[in-house]
Amino acid sequence: MKAWQITRLGEPGDVLELADLPDPQPEPGRLVVRVLAAAANFPDVLMCRGHYQIRPELPFTPGVELCGEIVAVGSGVTGFAVGDRVIGTASLPHGGFAEMAVMDAADAQPAPPALDDAAAAAFHIAYQTGWFGLHRRAALRRDETLLVHAAAGGVGSAAVQLGKAAGARVIAVVGGPGKVEVARGLGADIVVDRSQEDFVEVVREATGGRGADVIYDPVGGDSYDRSTKCVAFEGRILVVGFAAGRIPAPALNHALVKNYSIVGLHWGLYKQKDPASVWDCHLELTALAESGALAPLIGAKLALADVPDGLTRLAEGRTVGRVVFQP
Hints:
Distance between the termini: 11 Å
CATH superfamily of the largest domain: Medium-chain alcohol dehydrogenases, catalytic domain
Order of helices and strands: EHEEHEEEEHHEHEHEHEHEHEHHEHE
């Protein structure tokens, strides 16, 4: 099979090598799948650089999220059969940027019938992260105001749709005029181009000075710093990631005097600590997809040969929505 491999660490465009490898074999508790589509995630970029908390032994095939068709089932696996279409996370070193991949059966879920292969590949991580962040960690309520940073990106676009599905008023922050209509198309009530407007002032005006009840921040850096200026009394700032590259150092005295919460979100821990909740979340998300309330924003569908270029675009912030590779 064809597979991209990392044999040394560095930027994706420099270190990815296309190789011919033997087809993976099913081990106990695992599935071998034919990759139908694999979505690019920022952790893929970080793993190429050796900067992610998970550091597979070299060489390895990246690609943490995929939609695949089961071609072999390992011993001890129940609930899945050859031919099933599944989504979930790959078991490295056999990642999704290949013609075939390996998945732990515990990390695989039935692909939502309403979604095609590309959309299904981009559904698992972003929407699970958004659902756990907004509902379990921030307890978002109907008619509250939700501010979403990087709302035209993969994680942010999912949060916008989930916020609207929950009945919240959504203010979306994007970078550049070309992304404004994208965010409006996702259902955002107000869209702020941060290159032209100060989102703090927009939030204050839109809420009569009260501020945003929940702030969904996958960016960090200045976006977090400025968010503290427009969070509501008893508001919640969700710390989702640090795409800006700078990890903020919160002023806890400010959180004290303004009475807001700083809430961390590491979705992967739920797979370890409360796996049943991940399955329950999948069922709810699948129902929302069937209703049409959720549909992953696919910015680019690329061939397997284009993995280095797609990851480079993601690393440089030149993507809208999700980048998906289809062998």
